[in-house]
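the two lines:
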Amino acid sequence: MKLRIKKLGIRTGGILIAVMNKEDAKLMDLRGLDRIKIIKGKIFETVIVDIDEHGDVVKKGEIGVFHDIFDKINLKNHEIVETIPTRRPFSIAFIKKKLDGCKLNQKELAQIVWDIVHNKLDDIELTYFVSSCYTRSMDMDEIVWMTKEMTSHGDILTFKKKPIVDLHCIGGVAGNRTTPIVVPILAAAGYTVPKTASRSITSPSGTADTMETITNVAISAKEMKKIVEKVGACIVWGGALNLAPADDKIIKVEKPLMIDAESQLLASIMAKKLSVSATHLLIDIPAGNGAKLTRINEATNLKEEFEELAKRVHMKIKVMITDGEEPIGNGIGPALEMRDILWVLKNDKRGPSDLKEKSLNMAAEIFDMLGKKDGKQLAKKILESGKAYEKFMEIVEAQGRRHELNIGTFEYNVVAAKTGKLIHLDNRAISKITRIAGSPEDKGAGLYLYKHVGDNVKKGEKIATLYSDNETKLKFAVEAHKSLDGFVVQ
Amino acid sequence: MKLRIKKLGIRTGGILIAVMNKEDAKLMDLRGLDRIKIIKGKIFETVIVDIDEHGDVVKKGEIGVFHDIFDKINLKNHEIVETIPTRRPFSIAFIKKKLDGCKLNQKELAQIVWDIVHNKLDDIELTYFVSSCYTRSMDMDEIVWMTKEMTSHGDILTFKKKPIVDLHCIGGVAGNRTTPIVVPILAAAGYTVPKTASRSITSPSGTADTMETITNVAISAKEMKKIVEKVGACIVWGGALNLAPADDKIIKVEKPLMIDAESQLLASIMAKKLSVSATHLLIDIPAGNGAKLTRINEATNLKEEFEELAKRVHMKIKVMITDGEEPIGNGIGPALEMRDILWVLKNDKRGPSDLKEKSLNMAAEIFDMLGKKDGKQLAKKILESGKAYEKFMEIVEAQGRRHELNIGTFEYNVVAAKTGKLIHLDNRAISKITRIAGSPEDKGAGLYLYKHVGDNVKKGEKIATLYSDNETKLKFAVEAHKSLDGFVVQ
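prediction for all of em together
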């Protein structure tokens, strides 16, 4: 059926949807979530049908098209296209199969991943998939296939110099800031470290946000390869690359219910590591109150699954279970975290010793895995000689050094309301306050802690300073602080 | 935060969503699917936040509002409203609980049903609920609570004259057309029968569509009550009433994967029967190839569940398992089905005997349940004396008699391509053809069968006639017929 394109001024955020008038849909016997092909000359795209039941958006003879499809097949507003009904994706039957508790084979998972990557599944269909993986879980075969398919439906980067080392920390705020210290230690020892990091979603800052205070992190795959070949390492934002792209789309439907399917977590992390051709991998699982995993046996199970999966995809792995009860370092927010990192790298006395210690332990584990003796001593030597700092600045320069580190100029001091002991720092409250103050987009926003859990405080004594680049945002953040009980003294 | 209303010219189909600019969302630390209250004077409404990442729809300081909310709190375009962040619905935690395999209590189910009815859950969240009921299933306690909550979050109709009789057929095309024959037989015997029926979604016609050929079916609860009090019965469209309204919203997310959670099916049917205060209920479960349930033990299980549920909600029930392999009657499509019905009611020889027989059996089962002796004889007497026809016309008049029965004027004969036996009539193909021909909206569209499965046919002999009210639609339908193999002769 020939229809006239009507451009709709809204994005769907990826999913390919076209809106049809009720009468036209009837003539093709189409219902919502059926599929049609939109054909323009030799180009076509299969899209999901949404039906305008009221006819107030799309008139008979028109087809409403969102930005996402519009750009994809280069449509012009008001032009006539051909449309034909087509079958729903095969993956819908496979999702149903998984929902019914059956094991999927590699071909079926390949089809599902392809359809996810190419925006062929609606939110409802994708939610059923995530839900099925969560309630029915996947066995190790399925996890291996899922990992491989997520990897192959994206770019794969290769590097000349082996071994290729990577590291990853599973959730929790704590420990994220070790990466910019560990990576240059490893690179200074001559290893290839193509590190991709994420931006924060709910926490005050992600490793990519923190790195962005002093260098460019939104880097293409081609540039990333050039940088790593030149200086041996990088720390870039994974989101600007096309590595295992199914992952982001799956995370989008996991978020509303905070679903965290273990099979999905394993496949997603390992796919990203396979995408950079890592040969050796260190996984840090922080456990304890406030971390993602609170019980030690959960952490041990996950450790074993990682080890099995790594074996099946031929990657060397070491999994550390670390204490996840306490944040590491004093700065929270991009620039404040980077200041801590630079102090440690420059061997400045103000560098938090817990941050230094954990970074050295991580580097040591990797050296061990690589067969180096006295890994901790080696890591310490590289850090204290200034070679790690030198390598870090090489990485920063190669990615495109940005600007000086600026801490927010608007300040507010959080003081103790009474004398006693600081017994709790609430992660959620701290995230909320620093995010309203502007973190992580406003690099100078954040919180600097003078006191940690267990410290004694006197009434009126400073516990922390809240920073912002903007007076209004600071005002909103202080209001939020006053309504939350983030710093508990007893 | 004060924001300016921007009316968006699209409907969401119910879900209450408002679109915010990225920067404003940041200032309130809001992410997609978070909730805010929109406050106008003393009225407020909690809505789901969608974030415009590109800023091309909603500018800073604006809030984009769809029709659904706009009308609900009587907003004016460009007016300023107050907005404050609020917690996500508690039901999200309960859905997660069910997804984790735990049993829900009545309060938790009540909250979920309330949020569904009031459009407080996004498609993704609702899909997780449906998925959890499907994969984790519900026990009889949960089904009873769900039934009661679905009933109480909707209108409940009461009638003076008891017993109140109702009947329901589970899916499959076959047998649906018995309702307009059984209802007047029961009403003629003096029973109250407040029958609600559905419109077709994928089949050529639903009972409501068929009734609509000669009478009004979109009737309010108030009118329905008046009609039933006057003539003892009605056959109206359930969709125009507010009975167990959660059901339609749940069905919407079941459709894409054709999920048919048994617990949901039970709760949905029984809630609608409780909503009309039924005291006696007949359930017809057609089983066999082509029906919803293909195996007899599935049908038996469902029968037992219905019996248990009815007992728990204090309703008398009788469940028949019938042969669902073959359609009943010759006409397919609203007017053609109504013609069969009227022939049976008028004791015209052209009335299909299978339709008459099944209707009498159903009426007999209900008479038995009500303690009447020789139910079948009684039903036959009422039908053959013309009293059922008389009562049927009373119902038709009371609902608002519409127009004469018109069969489509454009015809196409389906003839046998070769001599042999008709071995298969494909339900899906027949639905597609009749729907493209205009069914069920165009009342005259449909198919009339001269031959049934097992009949011998000669090359060129008529198997069926395809009817349409519109030449173009007939053309499209004939094209579809030629591409499908709906009538198999061997």
